Amino acid sequence: MRKILITGGTIFVSRYIAEYYTKFIPEYTSEQEAEVYVMNRGTHNQVKGVHLIECDKNNIGSKLSQYDFDVVIAVNIYTRTEMENLLSGLRTVRDFVFISSSAVYPETLTQPFTEEQECGANSIWGDYGINKLAAERVLLERCPQAYILRPPYLYGKMNNLYREAFVFDCALVERPFYVPNYGLMKLQFLHVNDLCRFIDILLRTHPAQHIFNVGNREAENINSFVKACYKVVGAEPTLISVGNEHAQRSYFPFHNYSYVLNVTKMSELMPDTMPFAKGLKDSYKWYVKNQGAVNKKPYFDYIDNVIEK
To answer: Is residue 91 part of a domain?
Structure first.
């Protein structure tokens, strides 16, 4: 039985991964069971079946020293210091997977971004990308066998961010949808279940490549994303273009930043990803029963009081 440590384990990606590994996944695992540990402060409900290691990631101390983990999956690690604390706290680990971010690619690089391009500051993501990159670098210095994954926008069950859920809310009351600049900006997604599937493939095959862009091979644009969300609800949107006189983040849940990752290396190991329509159905089914778990933003207020005024 593998011992797996997941940092976090209570919100969206880390929670989904914790739930994933408490279940038998026959197609992608060589062992039928895993003993799943989560490391968090214990302030949220935990996934059923996990073992809680209650501590703050900034004050780990000796909390991990009694364990020998087969796998560590670092999800909510955002800075070099947090990564150093985690690595210093571990006694032994065989496999390590870090969920980093595509924010490590400067927006000035040629797209689609590849793993070989030089990473650095991105003016859209600011310190978030710089800090994720610093965490990547210290990890590879101290644990060169580790794997680093750089996803675009993650979606699916347990998403507490008001992204597809905002579009669902618009569709449920059949509101027109305001799209920035004719809705042509590209959006690349990956379902969180595909992220888990790919982690399993890495742990099973141990490829020589250690940094992977992960995402759907086909990017959406704003229009296709909105239409797909409305279709899941059973509605059809009336799209209204909004110009630059309105700040995009005031009424739309994505930054004004169009980018695409090259995911060829991922696709060589995992050729298929969940069809986007199916993934959105999964998101919607969860959202209907868990609306209170989503951190909603005041987009409707801005639309009603500024755009439509």
So the answer is: yes
